Amino acid sequence: MAYYPRTQPKRPWFNRVRFLIVIVIVIALGWGLTRFTYRLLHLKALSVQEVRITGCTPRRQVEIQRISEDLSLGQPLLWFNAEPLMNALMEKTWIKSVNLSKDPPDRLVIIIEEKEAYLWMVNAQGTYLVSEGGVLIDELNSSNGSKALPVVSDASLQNRASLARMSQVAKTIKMQQPEFFDLIEEMYWDDQGPILYLQDFQAPVKLDGRDPIANIPNFQSVFTSQLSTPEERAAIEGVNLRFKNQVILTLKNKIGVPTIIDGDQLPPKR
Predict the structure, then answer these.
(1) Which of 104, 121, 160, 253 is the most buried (most CB within 10 A)?
(2) What is the CA angle 32-37-40, rounded to 5?
(3) What's the confidence (pLDDT) of residue 245?
(4) In this predicted model, what pLDDT tens digit does every residue of 60-107 receive, in sequence order?
């Protein structure tokens, strides 16, 4: 008896079902992997839970702490995108630089470098700190005004260009003649350079705008040797240090007939 091979009937729908099943499995695995990754990256042990700020005054630190926490808490630490936070911090005019580092498992460390102020600018609105470049970095308050700085109160000089010029002179004096800098109470400017008023000395002191510190040591020697008493200082109408190696003193009783102390007459430096 002969047997004929039996063939299975074609089921074209089976391939479609199998394909759909595979698609569903792939989607389910992808979704599960995504959720697992999301949960892994947002574990407290791997996300920002603390921001530590150093390098700025307590009052400024409160402001920086708030901004930093708003833009970082809960974010994945290892994949933290620092650019938005850095941009927000550098918008503060008193910040010179920001250094951000990650301290696993859950902490950001931010080191702030503040701009240094070299002048106080006084106007009708208040008193402001002026940094290098003539930038107003903050309004004077109890937390940032622990040490007095030279004051600029002349309204005609309270523009960016003039403040930049005066702040550069103040910075140069502070760096190279710090003791003299501490004596400066006010600063002005004329066509030839800065004019200073010092503590316990009412006469204006004119400096050379190109080299403001050149004659300061000579003036200090003269001041110590010849202007040590209140009576001697009160007799001076003005001081001109704009000529090389000369200290020119104008006496109140001899207006127009200045006393010139040149290099040969200067007291020896101690």
Answers:
(1) 121
(2) 125
(3) 85
(4) 899 999 999 999 999 988 888 999 999 999 999 889 999 999 988 889
